[in-house]
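#onboarding

Welcome to the new folks! Below is a worked example of what a typical request in this channel looks like: someone posts a single protein sequence, and someone else replies with the predicted structure as tokens. Don't worry about understanding the tokens yet, we'll cover that in week two.

Example request:
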Amino acid sequence: LSGLVGSEMCIRDRTVSVDDMDMEEDTMQFVYPCRCGQMYAVAADAIVQGTRYVACAGCSETIHIMLDDEA
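Example response:
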């Protein structure tokens, strides 16, 4: 997962609810489109383990993933 940033604090461009992300069943990854045309992608297991920051595969943008219970 080249876009995985981890759970440490970093500069983020926006916060996205995990409910707004699409699940790719074949790869078991949550994905979300970036404005550059590429995708943010993170494994479902990584979210369960605490990953909340994910970098775009095509640019320097980063999103913060928020779970419902964190709202």
